[in-house]
Batch of 4 targets.
Target 1
Amino acid sequence: MKQLFTLSLVVLLSSSVVAQQNKVSTDIRTDSLINKWMADTHTPGLALGILKPGQLAEIKTYGIADIENSVPVTDESVFMIASLSKQFISFAILLLEQEKRLSLTDPAAKYITELPDPLNKITIYQLLAHTSGLVRDPENYHPYDKQTVMDVIKSMYTIPLNSQPGDQWLYSNAGYFMLAEIITRVSGTPWDTFITNRLFIPAGMTKTRTGTVSEIIPGRVAGYNYTKQGLINTEKWIAIRPSGALVSTIKDMVKWDHFLDTTRLLSPENKNLLWKPAKLNNEAPINYAMGWYAEPFLGTPRIHHDGQYPGFRADYERFPNEGLTLIILSNLDNRSLESLAIKAVGILNPKLTPPPLHIQVAVPEKIVAGDQKIPIDITIRNQGKDIANSLVEMEIWDESGKSVYKQQAEQLNFNATAPKQLHFAWSPTKAGLYTVNIGVYGPRWTFSYAWMTNLATLKVQ
C-alpha cells in the first residue's frame, strides 16, 4: 500500500510538472503572437482575457493605454467595447421577456407607439437578429451632437427599409436604438440604468458603463488610428449610441463571461436563445442570434462578436463545447482583432488550430494582352480539418505590387480528404509581368486561413 501511494504521488507530481511546462509553452507562444501582432499593426495597447475549464481566469495586458502620458495598459484600463455592447441589450430584452413584460414576437410599435408604417411591422425578435430591414446606420445620426435615442429613431421614419421585416439579414446598429428605447419604456427607467442595476451590479462589473466624452472616467484609454504619418488621436464622438455605447475593462469582461455561465437571472431556455441562430421568414437559419454571431468553426460551435469604434477594436470568442473563452480589447481601430483571436484560440486549444492549406495555381504559358479571358485554375488542399463557409479571393498584382484585378468565390466548403478546384479568369489589357496571389478567409472576410503571394507568374506579351 505504501509503494502504491508513493507511485501515485510520483505520477501526480510528474503530471503537474508536464501541465506547468505546457502552460509555460502556451504563455510564451501567446505572448509572442500578441507582441508580433502589435508590432506589425502598430497597436499601442491591448488587454487579453482567457477562461478555460477548471482553471482560474487569466488576464494579460500589453503596451500603452495613453501614449501622451505614458500610461501602461492594466486590468483596470477602460476601453470602448463598441458592438460588444449589443449582448447586454439583448440580455436585458430577454430578462424583460422572462418577466412577461414583453414578448419577442411583439411589434416594436406596441411600445414605441409613434412608429410609422412600415417600421410598425418590425418585431423585437427581428431587431435583435438584424432581420428588421432597417439600414445599418441612420443617415441623420450625428456623432458630434448630443442626440436622444428617440431623435435618432425619428430620423429613420422616412428612410425606406432594405427588405421586408424578416426576409433578409442586414446588420443594423439602428435596430439597437429601438431596442434601447423599448427597454426604457417597458422598465420605466433609462435603458443604461436598467442594464447597470440588473446586469452590471449583480455581475460585479464596477467599471462598465456608457462612455460619455464629457464625464471623467478614471483609467480611460486613449484611442488611436495609424496613418502614413504615424499614430494619431482619433475623433471623439459625443453622441451615445446604444449599439456601441459602453466602456469596460478586461477584468469586468472576464467577470461578465463567468456571470453568463453561472447566472440564474435567465432560465436555461432563455439563456440559450442568446446564442441560438435566428431564422428568416422562410425558416432559413442565419449565422446570427441575439447580440451574438453563432456559427461553427472547424466543426465546433462558436459564439462571438467583434466591435469597432473610433480608436478602438474588441473581439469576444466563446467555444462552449470546449469551455473556452477569449476576449481582446485594443486601442487601435485600423485592424480587426478576429484573426488574432482565432490564432490565439488555436494556441490555447490545438483542436481549434486552423489546418494548413496547400495552394497550387496553373496558368497558360503564352498570354497576349487583349485576350478575352485567360484561365487561372486553383487547387486548394486542406491538410487536416474540414472548413465550412469560406471565401477565396484571387488578386493579380503588377510588377510594382499594385493590385490590378480581384475575383472571389464565396460559401466554399473544404473537405480534409478531397482537393477543391476553382476556376477563375482574367482579361489582361497591358503587357508585363504579373503575379497571382490567393487569400482564404472565414465568413464575411472576418479572419484569414491563408494569404499566399507569388503563386504563379503571368507573362503578358
Note: The chain has a mean pLDDT of 91.
Target 2
Amino acid sequence: MATLNTAHDPAASLAYWRARPLPLMQATREKMLPFARRGERADPAELAEIVLHDPLLAAKVLRTANQRTRSSLASDVVSVEAVVLLYGVAPFVEHFVRGPTVEELLAKDPQRYHRYRAQVLNTRFAIRLVRDYSARRHDAHPDEVTAAAVLLGVPALLGLLADGEPDVPGSVPLERLLTAWQTPEPVLALCRERGEATPRHAMQHATLRLAHAVQRGWWQDEVTHACKAIAQVLQQTESLVWRILVGRMLEYARHEQWDSLGWPPARWLAMLPGEWPVPPPPRPPAPPRPDPLAQRLQALHLAGKQGAAANHIVSLAVHALSEGMTMRRIALILISPDGKVLRTRFTLGVPEADPLCAFELALDVPTLFARLMQKPQCLWLHGDKRVEWATMLPPLLIDQVGRDDFCAMSLFVHDKPLGMLFADRGGDAPLSEADYQSLRRICQLTCKALAETTPR
C-alpha cells in the first residue's frame, strides 16, 4: 500500500492533511465557474468529467460526500456525478471552487509545479485506461473502479505538495488515510495492493501498472506482463488490449498538453529503422498585405500636397469608401449651380433602377442632408440616431436612399459646400464605430486636399 512519506508518525500526518484544504487547479476552477450561472440547466455528467480531470479535487469531492452527516439509510457515494446531484449544480460549484489553487501554493517553486502537472496528466491517463478496460469487462459498478483509480493517484500528488515543506509531520499509509476519509469498502478493497484475489482487483492493479510502465516506453517488459494479465481477465487476445492502449495513448498525445511540460507526444511512439528525415526548411514569412484603406488615405494626403485636380481627389475618396471600407453603394451627390437642390452626379455599385441613381432633394427643406451642407462633417445613421433625427428624415429622403443604415460626408472647398458622398453596406454587413472613425478621416483628408488645390 502506498504511503505519502516513510519517516514519521502516521497519526500526526493524518491531522496535518485534515487541517489543510486540498487545492484544485486554476484551469479546473475556470471551467467550473460557468456552471454556477447555468444552474440546473447544466449537465451534471459534464461537470463531473471536468472534476475528474483534476484528481485531487475529485478525491476531495468523494471525501466530503462520505464524511457528511447522514442517516443510517443513506448510501455510500462512489461517483463524482452522484455528489453533483446530491448538492445540485450551482451549490456544488459554489462549495468546491473555494479554497487555494495549486498554482497559488506552488507559485514560488516552478519545478515542483511542473512535476505536479506531469503527475496530474499521468493520473488522468491511468483513470481513463482503467475506465476503458472495466467497460470491456462490463463491470457492474464502474464508478467504484474510477474512484479507486482516482484515490490511488492521491499519494503522489500530496507528496508533491508536501515536498520541501518544513512542517510536514510524517507518513501515512494510503489505506489508513482512505479509512479516515470514510471511503466505502468496495473502493477501499480495490485500492489495496494485496486485496482479495478477484478478477476485478487483478485487472485494476494490472491496468495501473500498465499506465505507469508505458510512461517509460512501450517496449518495457512490465508493459507486456500487464497486457497479458489484463487479457486473461477479459478473456480476450493481447492484441485487443494493446489496441485499446495505443488508441488511448494517441488520444492523449493529441489532446493533452504534454508539450507544455517539455514532453513531445512522440515519446510514446515506436522508433522506426532508417535515416531520420530531414525537416524541410521553414517557409519565409509572407509579406504583410497592404491595408487598402491606409493606401487610399495616403493617396488623398499626397493629392492635396501635389495640387491634384478636384475630380481626382473626389475619385480617391470614392475608392477609399469602396476598396478601403468595402461599401456596397456609393453616390456622389452635388449641389446644383443655383444652390437650391442636391442631385446625384455619380454612383458606384448602385443598380440603374435604384432610386438613388436619380436622387434629388431641395435644400430649403430642413432635412438631414441639408444640415450636412452647413459645415464639413460626416454622419452615421443607425439605431437610436434614427429616433433622434426622425424629424429630419422625411419619406421623400428615405424612399430615395433606402432604409438600411448609411453614412454620409459633406464635401467643402474652404467654406463653400460642393455636395456630399453617400455610402452604405446593406443590412448583412452593418457599420461599426471603427468604420465611422475611418469615414471621418476620409472626410477630413478630402476637404483638406480640395482646399489645398483650390485658391480662395
Note: The first strand starts at residue 329 and ends at 335.
Target 3
Amino acid sequence: MSSHPNQITFGTDGFRGIIARDFTYDAVRKIAQGLADYIAYKNMRVTEKPHVAVGYDRRFMSDRFASTVAEILTANGITAVVSAEALPTPAISVLTAGKFGLGVVITASHNRFLYNGVKIKQNGRSAPPSVTAELENYISKAVPMKTPGVVVVKKSFKKGYVDYLNSKSRIAPLLAKLRGPVVIDFMYGAGAEVADEIFTSKNIVKIRAASDPLFGGITPEPVEKHLGELIETVKKKRALMGLALDGDADRFALVSDKGQYMTPCQIAPMLLDYLLKRSGGKGKGKVAQAVSMGYLTRRIAKAAGLTFEETPVGFKYIAEKMISEDVFFGAEESGGYAWKGNIPERDGILTALMFLEMTVKTGKTASELYKDIEAKYGKSVFVRTDFRMEKAIPNKHSFAVKLKKKLPKTIIGKKVTDTNTIDGLKIILENDSWLLMRPSGTEPLLRTYAESDSQENTKKLLEFAVKLMEQ
C-alpha cells in the first residue's frame, strides 16, 4: 500500500494505513468517490442503483470516517445508510446478502491502534479481486464530489445481525446448558457491541469488552502472544475453554481448558469433524482451505469422501469458491472459518457459538475434543515465523519457482512428495509434514509456516527454510 492518496490499493482484505499519514479524510473521500463512480458505471442502464450499508469498528474516529463515506455516496445520488453503532464486520456482510448491494466497513481489523482501513463487502463476503482491481482504477482517477448540505442517514443494524446469528444457532437454549464457565476475550473490539444480546449466560465470563481505541495497549490480533490475559483467566476460572475475537470480530481463536493456545491447524479439524457428525454423515461438497493451513483437515476430508482444495492466502479466495462451488467447509490460517448454510464469510462470533454448541452437545472440554481428533487423525504441531529480509520480493511466483529448483530430494530425513506454488512455495513431505515460504510482496518480510507431528520436526523445518534462503 502506498501512502500517496492517488495510489490506494486493496490488499488481502481491504485498504489499510496509519491514521493521519496514509489513512486520511482525503483518502477516504477518494475511495468513496471511486466507489460511487464504479457503481454509476456498472449500473448506467438501470434506474435504481444498489444501496450501500456503511459500518465501522471501535477505532479512533471510525464513525466519522464512515459518515464521510456516506456523504460522498449520497452526494452522487446513491442511497447510503450508516450504522448507528460500531458493529462486527460480518454484520455488514450479512446486509449485502440482502437488500444492500454493497457494504463499506471502516476498520483495520487486527492491526494496531494507529491504523485504520476500508473493507468492501458484496454478496455476503469481501468483494473479490476482480472488483477491487476495478475499484482501484476508479479511485486513482476520482475527484470527490462536494458535500455541502448533505444529510447522512443513520440506522441501527444490530438487531438484523443478532437475528442472523440466532437463525444459525439456538443461542439462549444453548447457553442455558453450559455446564461450566467459558471465557470470551473481545480484545476491546467491535464483537463486544453485541455481547449483551448474544452472550447472556451467567457462565460466560467477558474480558476486555470495554471500548478503547487504544486496545489497552495490545494488538487486537487473536494469536498466542496477545492472549496472555485470556489464558490466565481460563486457568483461574477453571473454564471449559476460552474464545477470542479480533478487532472487528471476523477472526477467532481458541484456548483449551488447560490454558493451551490452539492453533488454526487444530481448530479447523475440530470444526470440520463436528460439522460432519452434525450433518449425520450427509456432509457433501468440498473442503477449501488456505495453502498456509495443515494436513488434519485433508485427512478428515478424505475419510469423509469430500474433495479437498487449497487456495492462496486470503479468505476472499475461499469465499469465491463458496459462492461458485459446493463448499462444505472453508478455513484460513489467520483464524477465519465458514461452513455451508451461512453467508460465505468468516465470522468470529458464529465460530464461537459453534464451539459452545460443541461442548454442550458432546459434554466435552476443548482439550477432550481435540484429543479425539489427535487419536483418530494424528498430531499437529504448527508454527509460523516471520523474518525480515534486505528487500521486498515483488513476484511471489518467480520466487517460488527459483526456490523450488534448489530443493533437495529429502528434508529432515523425509522424501519430498509434492510442491505447491499458488502463493509462495509449499513443500510437502511423505508423512504429510510441510513447509511454506511466502514473501509479503509489499514489505521485506518472509513468512514461514511449518507443521509436523512434533515440536522438534517443526523447528527443523523452519531452520531448513532459513538455510535454503541463504543458499
Note: The chain has four domains: 5-161, 181-260, 263-346, 381-470.
Target 4
Amino acid sequence: MDNEFKHSAEYMEYLNALPKEMYIKILENIFTGILVNDREGNTIYVNPAVTRHYGKRPEEMVALRNWGIWQGVVSPPAYKEMLEVRRTLFYRQMHFNSQEVLTTIINPVLDNDQELELMVSVIQENIESFDKVYEEESGISGEQESPFKNIIGESQNYMKELVLLRRASKSKTPILILGESGVGKSLIAKFIHDASDRKDQPFWAINCAAIPENLLESELFGYVPHAFTGAGGKGKKGLIQLADRGTLFLDEIGDLPLSLQAKLLYVIESGKFLPIGSETYVEADVRILTATNQNLEKLIEERKFREDLYWRINAIMSKIPPLRDRKDDIIPLAFHFLKINNQNNTIQKKFSSQFLPLLLKYHWPGNIRELKNVIDRCYILSPGYTIQPDKLPDYIFKEEDRVSNADSLNFDVMMEAYERQVVREMYRAEKTIAGVQKKLNMSQNKAYRLVKKYCADLIEK
C-alpha cells in the first residue's frame, strides 16, 4: 500500500498487516452507498447499500462498461466534470430508481502522474429519524444550556481545569486565571459565569492594559455629575455597578495601576465602592474574576502589585495550559475556525489530508489566537474548495516539510517534493507556463498541470 496520506511508518505497517477480508467486510457493511469507477468509466466496485438507489445488485452494476449508462440512472451525472477538474465534487443528484434527491460526494484518486485513476462516489443518505440527538444526549434545551457549549477542547489537562472551574463557579470566591497570551482566558471567564448561579445576570469584561489610568478609574467605578472637567451632567455608572449581582472580569490584572488596586481590594472585601466625585458609597454584589499572563509574585517583589490584593484574587487559581500542551485540541479548534469561515462565506471549503498533520507539528507560541489567524489566512488564500498545506505560512510549512514528513519519509514523497521545488523555481524564473514547458522539455498539458498543482499561489500574485 502506497503511503499517499503520509502516515507514520508504524501506522502504515499496521494497515498493511490487516487482512484483505477485513477491508471487504467494512465496505460491504457500510450503510452509506459507495461506488468506484476507473478512468475508462468501468464500474469496478459497488457496495450493497447502492442497490437502494440504483435498483441493481452490485454484481449487475460492475458489468456496466461505459460512462453513458449513468445518463438514465442519476441526474446530473458527475463523471464529465470529474474528468476535467480532478478534484472533490459535491453533487445533488436525482436517483430515478428511488426517486430521491441525494448528496453525492465524488473523490478523485490520482496516479503518480496526477492523472485520474479512480473515481470514488459516496452517496449521503437523507436521514430524518435518529436514535439519539445531541440535545437529548447532553441534556441541553432552549431553557438550560450547558456552559460547555462554547468550549472547543478534548485534551485531558484542559478538561480537568474546566471541571474544577465549574465546581468553583458555584461560589462567589474570586478566581485568578493564569496562562499565556492567546490561550483563551476570556472564554474561560465566560465559562465560569455561565456555569454559576449568576448566569442570567450581567457579565462585564475589561482589559486593564488597554485603557489609560484616568479613564480606567471612571470605567470601573463610574462618576457623579460634573465630578471632573469633561464629566457629563448625568454622571455614569461604572462596570462594578453595572455588574451588580453578576460577574466582572478584569483581564490583564497585572497592569492595573497601584492607585486602583487599593480601591479594587476594598470592593472585594466590603462589597462597596465610591464613584468618582461622590461622598456616598454604593453597594455592589459582584463576582470578581481576574486573568494575567504575567508573574504577579515577581510584580509584588518589584512593588508593582499589592500583595494583599494578590491573596484576595488568588483564592482560587487556574492555570490554562498552552496549545502546545493540548495537542488533542488543535484539530477540533481548526475545524471550528473553518466552520466559522464557511458560515460567513458562500464557499464551503475543507482541509486536505496533508494539511492537518502539519498543524500538529507546529508549537503554536501564539496559542489559540495564532491558530485562528492561520486558519483564517489559509481560507482566504485558498482559491478552490480544498485548503492545501502550501497556503500555510512559511514558518509552519517549512522547506523541509516539502521534502519529507518527519514521521513518514518515502521515495514517492521525496520525488514529489523535488518535482514541486523544480517546477516552482522554473515558474518563478520564466513567469509563464510556456516558459516552464520549454525549459523543462515537457508537453504543454503536463506543464499546465504541474504549474496549476504547485504554483497556484505564485499565479495569484
Note: The chain is about 40% helix and 15% strand.
